[in-house]
Amino acid sequence: MTLAVCAADIVAAGSVRPGAVPVSRPAPAAVAQGEWSAYRLDKATEQSLSPPERIKRMGRGQEMAIGAVQRALDACATPPERGSATAVSVGTAWAEEGDEITFLENLIKLGEKGAKPAYFVNSVKNALASQLALTFGLQGENQTFAHDALSFESSLWQGAHLLAAGRARHAVVCGVEALVEFQEIHGHLLGWYGTDPSPLAPLSGQERVGGGTLPGEGAAAFVLGAPGSSAAPLARLVGVRARGPLRRSPAIEPAEEIAFVDQALLAAHTRLEDIGLVILGANGDAALDASYGAIAAGLRGRAPHLGFGVYRHLTGDFATASALGFDLAVRAVAGRRVPGEVRVVEGSAGSVERVLLYHLASNGYHSVMIVSS
Amino acid sequence: MRPRVVVTGMGVVSVAGWTLDETWGAIVEGRSGLGTLTLFESQRCGKLPVGEVTGDPAERSGLPGGSRSDHLAVWAARQAWGDAGLAEHRWDTDRGAVVLGALTGGMLFTEEFLTRLRLEGQVDARHLDDRACCNSADRIAEIFGLGGFRTTVSNACASGGSALGLGCDLIEAGEADVVLAGGVDSLNRIVLNGFNSLMLVSPDGCRPFDSERKGMSVGEGAGVLVLESEEHAIQRGARVRAWLAGRGNTCDAYHVSAPQPEGRGLCEAMRLALAGAGLSPSAVDYINAHGTGTADNDPAEARAIRALFGDAAPAVSSTKRFFGHTLAAAGAIEAIVTVLALEHQAIPPNLGLRTVDPKIPLSPVTEYRPAKLDVAMSTSLGFGGNNSAVLFRRPGTWEAAR
User: Fold this and answer.
1) How many other β-carbons are positioned within 10 Å of the β-carbon of residue A283?
2) C-alpha span between B83 and B106 (Å, rounded)
3) A3: which chain B residues are within 8 Å (Cβ-Cβ)?
4) Catalytic site residues of B?
């Protein structure tokens, strides 16, 4: 069943994106030869997130989340009030795993005397959400969702629900992931990431040498308000549906995925005909791209007007990249045109009054988010 | 009108026991489960009393593969599922959701992988896919065929209570009829050394609210509650164990690891729970406190209770010395203890308390004590200033409010 129809105005948005081109670094010698590539924040962006006046050392995830939220707040005509009326809802699969691994590496290399408290405190997954609360003085409900590719969608639903239930006047929702070497090791050993250093080109038909995708990182934040609470919202969230499979590593069936999209549309009281643009989470991995292609073809067969766009050539692949896709969807609706960064892979997307985001992970997690003008 | 959310099933595992009966038995007998760490070697922490579950969780869970957390969570969920009689009724499992609090997931696998890599140069990727903290919720959904939403809440030590609150959200929003909600965490090197590096772990076992308390005791376990809309529970003839009548979640926005000293955030969370239930403070008969036994937590929590309830504070006890601080599981396990207290009409003792710290403006209950309990609350606090309060009512006490 659905996790749907929690309408909310998207009052403002802000994001921190990696550089447009993957960066290669030597693979850890103990694990692999050669180089590994990833979409990483460029130096200027990194520096902009660490202003010299910030005394306390933070992890990169915290800095990225704060950066994205700061940009969203700066874009608000009237910023949400501090205190208990504003909630914080963060989606992050791995949170500050860099500090967690540093803590553990110290234990291994130096023995237990190497245990450093600051790394431990940051290793707790809500370190990001609580740092947002601290930095911006937000004392409302504070939630961290850490459920792989459902993390951002969970936080978005919760933020919208709090508004609908009258438990917050605003909700700051953020999806964030900071790439660390251990995640690269993890992803390469499990065969998710390839060694082809060329930029991702999802659904382009270009085969990547050796297959796989490339990892990435980034953050996107949104200020949500109750419907009608803002004079000029960027867009309106009209539906979120997210679900996991009932068995591990399921075979992807396009017909079932299309049915999933249909159920999400139904729950959001929206017809496929009303959608102008579909943004897909395709990541350049040949097998997953093939599934996305089949699903897109099925949808286009029923609604030939649909345009299809992709964005992971901008972000790389990570669990909460859907937050950056959502940011692009919001901007598309707000500007009434497809943002230049979105690569339209099929159709022309004439009207972008309603945009549907569809994400599918190889482990069977999938989600639909719908935004409207 | 919001649908009522009732508890129709519960399952628990901790060092205090593998079942509800064993857990309550330990409470009645005043038997602490804290003991010796055997799960891994630790030079610095090896002699600290911990709440390590004895026996093999994998044997209980019946789960092929998976992390220690997964096994604990699945075992608790199996109990809760059976207790609720969900297998005996036909219902739409696509309207069944899972919300689990979890912090560290398969951290033991991460530790093992990195240790072998760094010390032996060995790459052993066998268990990498089982290290994420969301796996436990996935395994539960898979086993019971729950096709609704699932998520993992990671609000530090308030995760379990937060997960119960989110479960209520799903039911109240009409997104689910049944939610398996709770929390899980297992012992690992990072958590034990982490708390020890902060000098928060007691060398002789936690003594919540005591004047000579020296810190917390780390434990592990899982608690899962079956939350259900009252209408759905009635339709299928389920036994209702309690009504989850109110909950509150707040953030101190005060410090990354310490609670606000006056407990203002917790006080607000408790106030929200009462407001949600439409009750005044005087209606509360018992509070199962977070009561970790650390220098900062206990006075902050006591002040929060005092601020809300004044001189007429209800009976209070912390049950941490029975099972240790089970992190993300704590809020769920203690919620279960709170419901059991309502059922047994008895107040669990604040084990380990000898002399109340003068800074604690409360008189926690030190002996198991029969009492008339209609309304009871469980509180949780976590790093980052996360606070959670959940409030339960005994069946038969809310008909007049209908």
Assistant:
1) 30
2) 27
3) 148-149, 170, 175
4) 157, 290, 325
> Residue B19 pLDDT more than 60?
yes
CB A175 within 8 A of CB A150: no
Q: Do B189 and A107 touch (CB under 8 A)?
A: yes
Q: Do A246 and B141 touch (CB under 8 A)?
A: yes
Residue A148 CA neighbour count, 13 Å, CB half: 25
Q: How confident is the model at residue A75 (pLDDT cuts 50, 70, 90)?
A: very high
The verdict on B52 and B119 lying in the same domain is yes
Q: Which of B176, B211, B235 delimits the end of a domain?
A: B235
Domain at B368, CATH number: 3.40.47.10
> Are B168 and B58 part of one and the same domain?
yes
Nearest-angstrom CA–CA distance, B113 and A67: 33
ipTM (interface predicted TM): 0.97
Specify if B400 maps to a domain: no
Question: For chain A, which domains are there?
Answer: 8-225 (3.40.47.10), 235-372 (3.40.47.10)
- Tally of domains within chain B: 2
* Better-scored residue on pLDDT, B396 or B160: B160
CA separation (Å) from B67 to A96, B74, B130, B154?
21, 11, 6, 17
The reply to whether B31 and B150 lie within a common domain is yes
* Judgement on whether residues B51 and B197 belong to the same structural domain of the protein: yes
- Report pLDDT digits (tens) over A174-184: 999 999 999 99
* B231 shares a domain with B251: no
- Domain contains B28: yes
Report CB contact under 8 Å: B251, A88: yes
Q: For residues B231 and B119, state if they share a domain.
A: yes
pLDDT digits (tens, 9 = 90+) for A264-308: 999 999 999 999 999 999 999 999 999 999 999 999 999 999 999
Q: Which two tokens stand for residue B165?
A: 């609150």
Q: Considering only CA atoms, which of A11, A125, A13 is closest in space to residue A69?
A: A13
Q: Does pTM surpass 0.80?
A: yes
| Mutation for B interface: A147, A181, A243, A367, most B CBs within 10 A | A147
Q: Which domain holds residue B337?
A: 246-394
Average the pLDDT over B191-217 and give the result: 97
Pairwise CA distance, residues B140 & B280, whole Å = 37
pLDDT of residue A53: 66
Q: Which of B40, B63, B193, B264 to mutate to test the interface with A (most CBs of A within 10 A)?
A: B193
Residue B399 lies in a domain: no
A261 DSSP β-pair partners: none
What percent of chain A is helix, strand and coil (3-state, nearest 5)? 35, 25, 40
Q: In terms of domains, do B176 and B34 share one? A: yes
- Best probe of the B interface among A102, A126, A156, A365, by most B CBs < 10 A, is A126
Look at strands A86-91 and B346-347 and give their pairing.
unpaired
CB contact under 8 A, B134 and A147: yes
Q: Which long-range contacts (CB under 8 A, 24 or more apart) does A44-53 make?
A: A45/A16, A45/A17, A45/A18, A45/A19, A49/A16
- Cβ contacts below 8 Å, chain A against chain B, sum to 210
Q: Do A113 and B265 touch (CB under 8 A)?
A: no
- Which chain A residues have a beta carbon less than 8 Å from that of B45? 112
Q: Pick from B390, B249, B383: which is nearest to B327 by CA?
A: B383
Residue of B nearest to A103 (CA): B190
- Per-residue pLDDT tens digits for A20-69: 999 999 999 999 999 999 999 999 999 898 776 665 679 999 999 999 99
B240 is a domain residue: no
Hey, what are A109's tokens? 């290399």
Contacts of A65 in chain B (CB under 8 A): none
**Chain B residues with CB-CB distance to A180 below 8 A:** none
Question: In terms of domains, do B230 and B254 share one?
Answer: no
Chain B residue numbers with beta carbons less than 8 Å from the beta carbon of A142 are 155, 249-251, 384-386
> Are B166 and A100 a contacting pair at CB < 8 A?
no
